[in-house]
Write a structure and sequence with these properties.
- By secondary structure, the chain is of the alpha+beta class.
- The protein has helices at residues 32-36, 59-72, 81-94, 139-144, 171-183, 228-240, 252-256, 288-301, and strands at residues 12-15, 18-21, 39-41, 44-48, 54-57, 103-111, 124-132, 146-154, 188-192, 198-201, 205-209, 215-217, 245-247, 260-265, 269-276, 279-280, 312-314.
- The chain has two domains: 12-132, 2-Layer Sandwich (D-amino Acid Aminotransferase, Chain A, domain 1), CATH 3.30.470; 139-301, D-amino Acid Aminotransferase, Chain A, domain 2.
- Strand 9 and strand 10 form a beta hairpin.
- Helix 2 (59-72) crosses helix 3 (81-94).
Length: 315
Amino acid sequence: MSTDKTKATAETIWMDGKLLPWNDAQVHVLTHGLHYGLGIFEGIRAYRTQSDRLAVFRLQDHMRRFIESAHICQLAMPYRQEQLEAACLELLRAQSTTLKDMVYVRPVAFMGDGAMGLAAVNQTRVAIAAWPWGSYLGAEGLSKGIRAKVSSFNRLHVNTAMSKAKVNGHYVNSIFAKRDAVLSGFDESIFLDTQGYVAEASAENIFVVDRHGTVKTPPLSLPILDGITRDSALQILRNDMGCKVEEVAFTRDELYIAQEVFITGTAAEITPIREVDGRQIGPGTVGPKAKELQERYFKAVRGYYPHYEAWLSYV
């Protein structure tokens, strides 16, 4: 059973345009985002590359989505995308002696303190933190696969929440599903949408491989996040592995009879699922496509492929 006990800690945080000691990056207890959940965030990783340099993976794409999330939420963003990218690199350079590999970077923006109430509009606070964080679902999960449970909670309807924005408050839905799965003895939860189609995991996109070898993943027309790792996986599967890939809706029983199931996400990377709802997936081990995708993905993030060099922003 996988539980996340990683303590986030480092030396410095970038906050509202300045580098601050970790313990000095604080907000007031009446911060609006704390009470009402109006905030947006990103999860980004930086890896030690084959040239022995730390590089942030797809920084521009993450910060573009960060800006877009703020725009969707009508949260005023006081910084341009290129300023946020520069701040991220500045933060990592300031901690270059302690943050060496498998670094997790967390930009967050939220409505600050001032007026209260749902109609309040206060100053937007922006912070970026970075700390060492290994595989979200564990090294064993990467190598052997995890056990998942279809959640009794649905992914939020498109007219209930805006799924293309990475909104802080949306993740209460994910917390409910994740905790229910873990307390039931599973590692991860899988959401269905309100129509009953497979949507995504609690914080990851999901893929299946059918008996014909076709790779399927839910389309972006469903209420799922447009995942950066999802997009990376799609490019590798199509361009490097020559797989037939379909972005198509499918039901939970297709999970049960799939030859392979795996999830993708910045924190989870490429994690195979060996069991869903007590049903073994394929042979119950990491499938060949998931294994090859893992290998190629980890080479891409570490700078082994010149054709994916544009994905890396070197510190």
